Amino acid sequence: MQNSTDENTIGSSLEDNRDLLEFAVKLNMGFSKHYLDDSLTMIWGNNAFYEKTGYSEKEFLFRFPSLKRFGFLKSYDFLPMIAYLQKEYEAGKSCAEYEICMPVNHKKPVWMKLDCTFVAPKNNGIPMVYILYTDIDDFRKKEKEYYISEKEYKKNLEWMMSEYKGNIYVSDMETYDLLYINESYSNILQISAKQAVGQKCYKVIQGRDSPCPFCTNSFLSKDKIYNWEFYNSQLKQAFKEKDKMLQWNGRRAHMGLSTALDSTNRNNKNCPDITVELKTMSVGLIRLDTEDHRSILWYNEKFLEMLEYTKEQFEEESLNRCVYMHPDDFERASMMAADLKETGDNAVLEVRVYTRSKEEKIWAITLYKVNSEDSRDGISSIYSMGIDLTEERKRNEKNTNIIGIDFLTGILNRAETEKQIKDYILNNSGSQAALFMVDTDNFKMVNDNYGHIVGDMVLTEMAEGMKTIMSKNDIVGRIGGDEFMIFMKNISGADDAARKAKELTEMFRHLFEDDKNSVSVSSSIGISIFPDNGETFKNLYSNADRALYQVKKLGKNSYLLYDDISAEKMLDNKYFTPRTKIESENNFANVSGDLLGYVFEMLYDSEDLDKSVNDVLEIIGKKFDVSRAYIFENSEDNLYTSNTYEWCSEGITSEIANLQNLSFSEHGNYKELFEDNTVFYCRDIRTLKPGQAEILAAQGIRSTLQCAILENKTFTGMIGFDECTGLRLWTQEEISLLIILSQLISLFLLKKKMGRMEQKIVHYQNLLDGSED
What we know:
The protein is α+β, with helices and mostly antiparallel strands. The chain contains 24 helices and 26 strands.
């Protein structure tokens, strides 16, 4: 009788809800009917419902007369659900929604969204409920990934903000509660971050009891930055601020980055105003804040003219900061400025600057210190005057190149040196000679510690010393920044070359020992013998370069003949070529915080992240003199990877179009190269496995340095730097800086990826909402 009654009830119910049933069948969605009792007793279910449980209809109904008894649906999952549904029904609701992790026979549980429709009781007085099951497992996984990514992004962002030298705060746009404040702003406001967070931003920052009438919240949008200036009456200080909207722990938040403008509360009217006097001069002039040597407090029109900016362009694009100078030269100038202690202390140096059109110029600049007590407005600052020497340098180089002379040292230039050596080899096949490659050890340290003027003097004295020691018939030339080449003619054997090399190294060591301010100089020398080690200039150059490499590898400050390189060292140096970079050419004394700050500001301020990432790759590529800089990003399943950004130096072929949707499994499991480290460095790609080497060789790559992009410790892409013109030796300092730059870029790529994921989640939610309608 009971079965008959149930079948009649089911038939009646199906007739009453045929539209809903047909909808469920069409979408292959699970559908079931239950009594709304404490166990959700089963009445009926469609085929899709039973398929989702992993049981046949007969097996399910035999084992589970109710949802409460269903498999591993524990009481701590079921009880809150039935209590909620009964509460909604008793409140007069006709439907309700609930999300629950549903067990599946012999498989992992699956998250389901339950759309419940209540039916009032008929004969037996027990209400019923229809349940439509929607699989939201992928949605919940994406939601979890998004949460983890957002958490990691927030953690990295907080780290970057803590390192930022300016002032940063984050506040809730609805409640005005402070959510974050960095150490710099805490110090200025004289309140700890712990005390500030949770208080009203207008109270802590402006000392007000109500929201500021000039609050910028109404001007903010997701992809725009609002720039403005304001006066803080509490601090009696003017600030320049950039505001942006962002999500912070699920809250719509306002982020503000501010820097102080000229102080308005300090005056010393007894001191002359040096700015007024300088304004009349017809050279480029600026006034720099001594706190960071970056912030420009004042500049004249000639300065803008020399850099090809209008006032509006300079303020908008450089934010009134010294970002136009070559990073290496700025670092040196900043060190010299920091050594100026008293008013009147000054220094002079040459620097490379870049105009708005990216043209490189050579400026001679002066640095003049004025302490706060001697300043009219009470601000300690550096006044700097710039004179453009570019045209004069070009004229000098043009004149000296005509006669084959290096304009700095007075010896032969590279082209003339090579020409004369080739002529000698061609016309003296029966004689013996020696080619010396001379590289100045640690020359960048000389420039960094003493400046370019002293560096130029060191090179000049080294050249003069070589001319003195060598015969008048020998060839002596400068072939690079700190590299020289000597061709010693008519020798009787290799011993003659060795003796002369010893004289040269001794001379370099003692070059400045009698000077009051001694400069330590040494050199490394590699030697090849004609014709034993080569009958052409190319072969002699290559073998001398190999010997030089071994000298530097063994500790520098010595010499070595090519014939003295052991077989073991030769094997290690098997693919070394004349184009290989010498360590001293691109050695960085330390990680440049200025470049990091500049890149961070570019990416943070960006309204077009794709363009900014490409701009950043160009800056890094040019700074490190690489052939190609690029980014690969993996597919969501991490089975494929694609080249998404690329910069190439002049003459290097773009490869981005050929590097899309590459399968890791088809290219020698490339990911394994990063298993033990976040960095993969290969000086010679021919040492790799065939499958891994082929994909690099096809792009003309000789050496490569690649930094992994990690999300939750999973390899999701890489940022790479290739050398296509020869082999490359990367220093530890360069690698350290590139790792940090790569982490910084990947942080903003993660933010972009989170934005795409958020859009997908919204789209998926809209589809779910549409299915309910």
